[in-house]
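User: My collaborator sent over this chain with a note saying "see what the structure looks like." That's all I know about it. Can you take a look?
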Amino acid sequence: MDTESSPVRRLGREARAAAPAVGALSGKEKNALLLFLADALESRTDPLLAANAGDVAAAREAGLPEGLLDRLLLNPGRLRDIAADTRAVAALPDPVGEVLDGRSLDSGLFLIRRRVPLGVVAAIYEARPNVTVDITALCLKTGNAVILRGGRETARTNAALLEIIHTALARHSLPAAAVQAISDPDHSLVTELLRLNDYVDMLIPRGGEALQRLCREESRIPVITGGIGVCHIFVAASARQNEALAVIENAKAQKPSACNAVETILVQRPIAREFLPKLHGRLAPLGVTLHAGEAARPLFAAASIRLPPVAEGDYDREWLSLDCNVEVVEDLEAALLHIRTHGTGHSDAILTEDMDQAGEFTRRVDSAAVYVNASTRFTDGGQFGLGAEVAVSTQKLHARGPVSLEGLTTSRWIATGRYSLRA
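Assistant: Without extra context I'll predict from the sequence alone. Here is the result:
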């Protein structure tokens, strides 16, 4: 096939052509579009849930793991949450047009730097129908066109969502090409998308390590990578133990399939003999399986608690399930070394009453989000007051942490002179 006439390149050309129409919308017009979309999602609950039920049934028959099935599942409450997130994005200040810097120069120029849309954003993601709406809402709010590539497991749900999105675009006189989706599950189309650097300005992959690696290695488009969360909680000797148990329960059991769920708990040795049985007693009734590290195993055994050991590779594993590693460390230095060795730079926490120790932890843990006496589950655009998010970036350039409106913009220098000439 002639690459210039391929379906993916056609999507790219159409998205590039549609982007100026989205970028020209006023803040009021963008908000009206998003509020209409939120209402439409709620009014179409029954057909959306029916489409999603088909996806879930097919995924279960195909043997999709429980963690991914949970990410795929929509129910009335989750759909209301998606609509609420869309309204939250509409309520946020419009970043487009914001003046970031301004100065008068000796040359007579007045120089400003203004925030502007990127143009066209592409997103590749797996088993998360909420991402379809989240990314669409954030891209429209920032004046960008978007090309979506969801996983085959979300095909029915995404098709139903895209129909609603196109209805909203049409109602507001915008081209359907402002939000497009690659629905064909052929993996070769992903490779082709990664090479659309002449049409797409930024690529956001949301999925497992294999997808992240593919995009880092193959993309010709600038990539925001992240979302792989091997998250840690260090329980220091001074921590309030009952409160620490509640934080750990929230971080592990509230939504184990989330990338900000804790995967390894590090307990400082002076309290380990007392704390580890309490930890098991708190989490085991919730269905959590603790995997004991080398230093933790004898302490669990002394309390007559038999646990599976941490196997090779488990410390580097994103469980996405009701499994969690537990290890005993001597001090803050040992905890920092463990996190530096096995962490992914996503979210890490310390539970302590020693604020000097907390300060040292926050200075030295090189992660996108670092917590003191709080659950790692807060790493989320909505929880941070950013509205929805397109990804949680663990890289350091352009955007880090939950990527919301500002991460979907760039800037432009504008110079005003008096028929000025450079000397």
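A starting point for your reply to your collaborator: The chain has two domains: 3-224+390-416, 231-378.
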